[in-house]
Give the backbone structure.
Amino acid sequence: MKDLTQTDAEALIAKLGANAREAASVLAEATAERKHAALIGAADAIIASESAILDANAQDMRFAEEKGLSPAMLDRLSLDPSRIRAMADGLRSVAEQADPVGRVLAEWDRPNGLHIQRVATPLGVIGVIYESRPNVTADAAALALKSGNAVILRGGSESLHSSEAIHQALVSGLRQANLPETAIQLVPTRDREAVAAMLRAQGLIDVIIPRGGKGLVGLVQSEARVPVFAHLEGICHVYADRDADPDKARRVVLNAKTRRTGICGAAECLLIDREFFAKHGPVLVQDLLDAGVEVRADGELSQIAGTIPAEPSDFGQEFLDKIIAAKLVDGVGEAIDHIRRYGSGHTESILTENDATAERFFKGLDSAILMRNASTQFADGGEFGMGAEIGIATGKMHARGPVGAEQLTSFKYIVTGDGTIRS
Amino acid sequence: MKDLTQTDAEALIAKLGANAREAASVLAEATAERKHAALIGAADAIIASESAILDANAQDMRFAEEKGLSPAMLDRLSLDPSRIRAMADGLRSVAEQADPVGRVLAEWDRPNGLHIQRVATPLGVIGVIYESRPNVTADAAALALKSGNAVILRGGSESLHSSEAIHQALVSGLRQANLPETAIQLVPTRDREAVAAMLRAQGLIDVIIPRGGKGLVGLVQSEARVPVFAHLEGICHVYADRDADPDKARRVVLNAKTRRTGICGAAECLLIDREFFAKHGPVLVQDLLDAGVEVRADGELSQIAGTIPAEPSDFGQEFLDKIIAAKLVDGVGEAIDHIRRYGSGHTESILTENDATAERFFKGLDSAILMRNASTQFADGGEFGMGAEIGIATGKMHARGPVGAEQLTSFKYIVTGDGTIRS
């Protein structure tokens, strides 16, 4: 969908960016109480606008059906009263979190009497580019506002009406709290040129967070001139070590793969130590087969009835489905080598009772999240106790792992002296 | 200087990048003792190679004189026994710092029994692009090594022989500690195409740190596809509030401007509250004039004998010289507005005995460093107690303010359960 010229799109984003920058300077100084009030006001307004939101969503659904969207996409797009309540609850839960701005992150004294504090500040302006789920409008805006940032939201073109109706409710919360309405802005066009302009908006947008499939995230990562918090894929590994407790291993492997297969923390590859396999047999693979998982097995493992032989391309693949790649390895060293080669730096879990082996796994890998005797499905801001997340990042810079309100802050140094001069 | 094609330069950086990545994976697991040994070994080797380093430097100096470099540039380039000793001392001082890798930055328990730790890890591969000072070779390599990162150094073309001789000493330290020699690599060419290839080396280099003048930093900031830690300019402001103690104010203003005028923390603009001026007269300006500073004064201030009238372009200018812009303002609000408009986000200092006014200054501004009753010349990693710095950053992402070894780390999450699964 392209009608805007590049110049038009850049002018539009420049205008939204200037509004956002102005709002951000107000938000940076806003009290915790006022941000809390805006979020609670927005939650109330979401509930009060239920029928308007449902009408807007119905319009989007008709359009999407005409366009022939897949049932999965239609499901992501669709809203009902319970999903609307969940959005309002999400806003309330973020409202009740501790305010991340102004926290003293570190402080120390210098021999010359200077007192130095590192204090959390907002990042500034956050751009969020997402696909069909309209609830991202509320979730992303809530975390941005909590952390004192202005946000520019560019929802999927399919969800434009739904997003607009939700945006209205959010703005009503801002208005009630006497905060600038431009603290939360929605890009008012379906035109894709606007996305391209956001990606180039250095100086206007401080960080871009893409929410969606690999196509969207890959595009954003390769084109953006603005910093990006994202993960491209969640190719999560579970490694069952020779010193694993077999009961714990069975429980964790099954949960890591099957609890929900479509999320980024779902396991995509099972590595089994040869000694574990010799001692305990094919239990881990059998459990998966019994649960209806397609096991693409390498080497000896493919002799287990019900598995299918793995192709080389099955390793390093994000299935997001009831499919798993499986392979025998010679100990933790080979597991580490495999994960370094095929992993995506998201989340990996080792199953072992051996502290030294776990330590080696933790040291040898540099994924954002490393686990021991726990399901990779815990890779989630809510499960980490962060209250909510805007996504999971695998970059090395700034925010890594689940990105909650705290991760949307930067810091500044406050240095206090008493007429102190440098010699 | 261009002989390499773009393809050649990219192949060269790809090779250095692959070496660095391999070295980085060894460094990430290296013990604190081994990194310490490599730094001490390098310091000893620097001292032992004094004559070789001085010979190489003499060669660079001859070349630079033929090229007609300015006396200031020649001074930055030149080495003598005391500068060589200072380099070795710098390496020893970084060696003695606490190891920043593996620190537990935060840890907490979840109700389901999971224990979560956030643990510091190296960033990976750091690219440093610098101008004529050959000592940056040792300083940057030391901080990178301490923080477990591999480094690719691209020194000024004028200092190539000096940098090579210093690099030899650093490599000898790595060798003695049995760490990979490719942990510290020097780009072996004067060709500028190599810089361009570094700036595009996404995936090979994790962060670029430019050290040099505005021309270099501006180029890096605008062209880099890799994250950059840098500041473009240090347009530092000092604001003398109505509630300033006049003695402290005189001491700090004079020091902030005159201690060293060529560093990024030197004050470039003095803002004086009208009430302070009415009460205490022109003392602050007079002190500067007496110290031989050219005061470019706005409005009434220009009536002080010895000042010269300010042009609009004097505000927001980084003089790096015995020159300062000066202006009267109506209180802290106008000072904040002025600094927001003309500052570069580096360092600003307020002189006041009034806590509420200081608080307003700290809240209203978002420079990397904000000070009270202290000289802006303290904007320095050493003065902050970080031991050493690789530079000062004004970006909002990741590292901000002085960048020491700690700021060259990222983190990962270590999650420990007991067969814990997600419901």
About this structure: Residues 265 and 379 of chain B are 5 Å apart (CA to CA). Chain B has two domains: 6-229+399-415, 236-383. The two ends of chain B are 63 Å apart (CA to CA). The first helix of chain B runs from residue 6 to 29.
